Amino acid sequence: MKTSIRRFAVIAAVLSAAAFSGSFTQLANAATVMEEVIVTAQRSEQGVQDVPIAVTALTGEMLEDKGIVNPSDLQMTAPNVSFTSTNFGGSSFSIRGIGRLVISANADSGVSTHINEIPLNTNLNAVEFFDVERVEVLRGPQGTLFGRNATGGSINMVTKMPDFESVSGFFDAEAGDYNHFRVKGAINIPFSDTMGMRIAGFKLDRDGYIDNRAADSRSVLDGSRLPNIDDDIDGRDILALRATWAWDFSDRGNVWVQYNYFDEDDDRARITNQICQQTDLPAVGCEPNGFGFDSPHLGSTTGGLFFALNGLGTLPLGANGDDGVNGISYDHPAPSNMDIRDMFTDFEPVFQYEEEIWSFGAEYNFETMTVSVLGAYQETDYLQQMDYNMDVGPLLGPSPLPGGLWPVSAPAGRSGGDVTGSNGCRYNDGTAGIFGGCVVPGTGPRLFAFDQASAETEYWTFEARLASSFDGPFNFQVGITAYETERIGGDYYVNANRDRKS
């Protein structure tokens, strides 16, 4: 019996040694192919293992392998990070619970976003990672090194710079259902041993995942369809281009200039699908804890309030909009079998965002001192229109005017009442909602309302920095930053029916 136990112990020891030896060999092999990730978390190039900061660094290859397509996907990989799409096309990164959820054009985020170490606020909801060298997520306060109220942390996206050795590049295309088509690529062109250019871009087109059931609805009066709407919502039509020129003008100095262009023009909804269980209280609209696909109480909507308070049409004050109650009826009633991927709205959302960024950087090394400058100039133009209630309103009372017109004013389509839009409309001309003026076509004799948000923004930033590289434990960085933001317009309109009885 003792022999058997002793033999078993010897065999177990041999197997354990073999397993340990195999594991050690695998670890050794892995160590030989492990690539060191270089980051600039402390505003200088260092190995990620040498940085005393909680940082998640993802190279371009890691982004591809992990299926990280856009900034919102970082929350699936980086600890303590969350991403939220906010109203009016905005967004908020939160790190360790610190971010920005306030809806304000002038509010700074608690997590700063940077492109090539330059603080830039871009369209994080729609932009995608393409031709990226790495992405760094820094957790904890970063105000000393990155500034801009980086209380929660900082996110730095580093694009690929030109390579002076050879012509190279890549091309990638994919297609799928919902008419999905994405293409991205880059080409690297060296002009000499010290100068080159890199051009990259991506294009995304797809239909929306949300079915608009109103597109197939028929009028209960004459069987007609609702005009000017498609059968899907929340599609994408996005184009992004980037060109980078770089020059190593000496062994100690280099300079680069980059141009980024982004354009989105589609029917993306700026809010998520609304879940509403209608309440009997007009001041609330929907039950706070209810789940359903009802329209909000008419007494809580803009159009319902306007008509009821002015005694116009057939909408009594406090009417909830139930079919056939108080003389209210729906020509296009909402179907009863709606689900989370369905909407029922008579207004096709509009989302337009155009952005141009010129940025640059230069650096010179004086042996123990390095001087660097960074700067950028950014212009953005934003326009959004949608029916916030996402419904098809009830019929209004008859009009004594020929044709029974209940127009809705058409805004200029750009920020500012003094700006004439592509449709020729301008509020300050006094042409809104009158004969021969600017109205939304095809609204019909229904309660109809939509809102519009628009803005134009100009922004520039500049930074100069001096960093030491002494041999020893003591080093320093000192710098100065300046920036300015000018917001033109920043308008928000709510447009609803205007009764034409007079």
Descriptors:
502 residues; mainly beta; nine-stranded antiparallel β-sheet; 4 helices; 10% helix; elongated; disordered N terminus
Our Rg estimate from Cα atoms comes to 29 Å
Cα(first) to Cα(last) distance is 110 Å
Taken from the alpha-carbon principal axes, the silhouette is elongated
Low-confidence stretches: 1-32
- Assign the structural class, choosing from mainly alpha, mainly beta, alpha/beta, alpha+beta, or little secondary structure: mainly beta
User: What is the averaged pLDDT score?
Assistant: 80
Total strands: the figure is 21
Spatial strand arrangement across the major sheet: 10-11-12-15-16-18-19-20-21
Beta-strand residue fraction? 35-45%
Question: H/E order of the elements?
Answer: HEEEHEEEEEHEEEEEEEEHEEEEE
Largest sheet: 9 strands, antiparallel
Helix content: 10-25%
Number of helices: 4
Folded structure, characterized:
- It is a single chain.
- The chain is mainly beta and 502 residues long.
- The protein has four helices and 21 strands.
- The strands form five sheets. A nine-stranded antiparallel beta sheet has the order 10-11-12-15-16-18-19-20-21, covered by helices on one side. It has a five-stranded mixed beta sheet with strand order 3-8-9-6-7.
- The chain is elongated.
